[in-house]
Amino acid sequence: MKRPILIIIVGFLILLAVGGYFLGWPKYQEFGDKKLEVEGKDTEIKQKEEYLSKLEVFSDRLSGYNDELAEIDFALPVEPSIAALFIFFQKTISENGLILKDTDLGELFSSEIQGTPGERIQKMPFSISVTGSYPALKNFLSVVYRNTRLIEVNSISFPSSEEGLFTSNLVLEIHAYQPKAEKKEAEIPE
Q1: pLDDT value at 184 more than 50
Q2: Alpha-carbon gap, residue 94 to 132, rounded angstroms
Q3: Tens-place pLDDT, residues 163-175
Q4: Quick check: helix, strand or coil at residue 36?
Q5: Is 15 in contact with 24 (CB distance < 8 Å)?
Q6: Element housing 115 (H / E)
Q7: pLDDT at position 39, please?
Q8: Pick from 138, 116, 113, 143: nearest CA to 125
Q9: Under a CB-based contact definition with an 8 Å cutoff, are residues 85 and 174 in contact?
Q10: Phi/psi at 69 (nearest 5 deg)?
Q11: N or C: which terminus of the chain carries fewer CB neighbours within 10 A?
Q12: CA nearest 126: which of 89, 76, 72?
């Protein structure tokens, strides 16, 4: 009587081992794979959290430079205000004892801004004609160069002069910032 029970127990253990091997082992491997996948996702989440915390630190540090960033935005506007530029030149010219005779802002209104494609800083040329004394012109140019906007004087010509007054033609160039095309979603590097 002991022998058949022993055979049944051994047979049951063999069936249990074979069943465990064929049924349980794949599930165990699948569980191990899922565990590794979850650990990988946890690591990825931790990296993204660290990245976001670094961005937050940089954002906090940049917020301390709001005045400087505002100056850069003023110096390199994305869409420069032609009216504000004209008012600046008109005011500066009159403050320095010059008379504004003529302006050619036509190239500022053109649909294409000068510069090569992909350039981030675009050049926008225009010209003005002023009349006044040489010291007044010198003071005017000094103010233009000290201005926070990026303005370049490309050329100056003196087509006429009468009794200490010069008519000066200035070809100037302002700079504008051309931002890159924004992506639809912000990408977080891994």
Answers
A1: no
A2: 10
A3: 778 888 888 887 7
A4: helix
A5: no
A6: none
A7: 94
A8: 113
A9: yes
A10: -65, -35
A11: N
A12: 89
pLDDT tens digits, 77-104: 666 667 777 888 888 889 999 988 888 8
Separation between Cα atoms, residue 171 and residue 125, nearest integer Å: 7
Alpha carbons 13 and 182: distance in angstroms, whole number: 66
Is residue 53 helix, strand or coil? helix
Residue 180, C-beta contacts closer than 8 angstroms, at least 6 positions apart? 120
- For the cut 70, the answer to whether the pLDDT of residue 150 exceeds it is yes
Beta carbons of 115 and 122 less than 8 angstroms apart: yes
Question: Does position 111 have pLDDT exceeding 50, yes or no?
Answer: no
3-class secondary structure, 78? coil
Please give the backbone phi and psi of residue 156, each rounded to the nearest 5 degrees, phi first: -130, 130
The pLDDT of residue 26 is 82
Is-contact 145 129, C-beta < 8 A?
no
To which H or E segment does residue 9 belong? helix 2-19
Tell the burial category of 135 from Cβ atoms under 10 Å away from its Cβ (0-12, 13-18, 19+). Answer: exposed
- Alpha helices of 20-80 — where are they, by DSSP H? 25-63, 66-75
Q: How many residues does the chain have?
A: 190
